[in-house]
Design goal:
This protein is 41% helix and 31% strand. It is an alpha+beta fold. It has one domain: 2-Layer Sandwich (Yope Regulator, Chain: A), CATH 3.30.1460. Strands 1-2-3-4-6-5 form a six-stranded antiparallel β-sheet. The longest helix is centred in the last third of the chain and has 29 residues.
Length: 143
Amino acid sequence: MTDREAAHRLVETVTAGWEADPESDVVWAGDFEGRRGVRMRQTVRDSTTVWFDPGDLTVAVEAYVVSLPAEAPASVLRQCLRRNAGVRRLHFALDRHGDLLLVGRIPVGELSAHELETTLAEAYQLVEQAFPPLVAALREKNP
C-alpha cells in the first residue's frame, strides 16, 4: 500500500467515526472527486465543509469561508493576515475565484487521528472567530 493510500484510508476511517459519533458536530462525511469531506455544524453559520486531499507527501486541507467581492475592503484582508500569524495548521488564502478559504497541509509522516481531529478543531475555531467580523466588514463596504 502506498503512503497516499494509507493516508486516504486513515482519513476515511477517522472521518467516518466523526460522522457516526452522536456527540460530534460532523453531520456528513464522504468522498467527492478524490477528496474526503466532512460537514460540521457551526454556531455562526449552518455548517462548514472541510476537505482532506491525501497526496504522496501531504494531506491538503481546505475549507470555504466566504466569497469576496473584486474590491474587497482592506480591513478584511488585514483581519485574515493577523489571524494567520496566530495559527499553526490552517491559514487564510484566496483561491483563483477570489473566495476566501482556510488551507493547510499535514505531512503524511505526521498524519494521525489526533492530528486530523486537531486540524478539524482549528477549522471550527477559526470559522467561529473570523466569520462574523469578516461578514460585518464586507457588509459595511458592500451594503
